[in-house]
Amino acid sequence: MNKVPLLSCIALTLFLLANGAPTLPPPPTVLQYLLRDLIKVQDKLQNVSERMKKYELHIPSNTSSMADLQCFTKELTPVAGALKYESKAQTIQEYINNINETVNSLTGTETTQCHYATKMKIEGFFKEFVSFSQKLRALTQ
Ligand SMILES: *[C@@H]1O[C@H](CO)[C@@H](O)[C@H](O)[C@H]1NC(C)=O
Ligand SMILES: *[C@@H]1O[C@H](CO)[C@@H](O)[C@H](O)[C@H]1NC(C)=O
Ligand SMILES: *[C@@H]1O[C@H](CO)[C@@H](O)[C@H](O)[C@H]1NC(C)=O
Q1: Where does the secretion signal sit in this chain (predicted)?
Q2: Ligand found nearest the CA of 101
Q3: Cβ contacts of residue 23 below 8 Å, gap of 6+?
Q4: Which of 18, 28, 83, 97 has the fewest CB atoms within 10 Å, counting from its CB?
Q5: What angle do CA 129, 135, 140 make, to 5 degrees?
Q6: Which of 116, 83, 80, 118 has the alpha carbon at shortest distance from 99?
Q7: Atom of ligand 1 nearest to the CA of 43
Q8: Contact at 8 Å (CB) between 70 and 112?
Q9: Which ligand gives the minimal distance to the CA of 39?
């Protein structure tokens, strides 16, 4: 008996498990990952420059469904650029990328119509993002 094919089969399985399993966890679990990353960002925002703390973002209004999460992540592209200059909050960008990917996995590629009513400083924006995610998690549980 040749053991090599079996071993490579195990290796392939492990590879698939490690690199993005094809089945996604259920939405409440994914929302939990999202919240974990959002809270990390909130934590790290305490160490950003005064200039960055004054950075304002649009707050989505009338958000109700999962697809509306995109209305928050759409706002993050300029933020990710501005955060490049924050020496004390380097890893913040990695969390923002994670947040974006998590939201993309929940909403799919279909784009939603977004309405923005007000602007808030970055801290307020993340607070809104967290409370909307918590609301969705409660609704999906
Ligand atoms: C904020 O900066 C301080 C001092 O550099 C550091 O000890 C702390 O871990 C930082 N906090 C976060 C959340 O990165
Ligand atoms: C989020 O993902 C979308 C779709 O892949 C991409 O176009 C956008 O640039 C990403 N935004 C950030 C802040 O990474
Ligand atoms: C948001 O909802 C309120 C109340 O349902 C409505 O009056 C308002 O026009 C909506 N705003 C937008 C931008 O859709």
Answers
A1: 1-20
A2: 2
A3: none
A4: 18
A5: 125
A6: 80
A7: 13
A8: yes
A9: 1
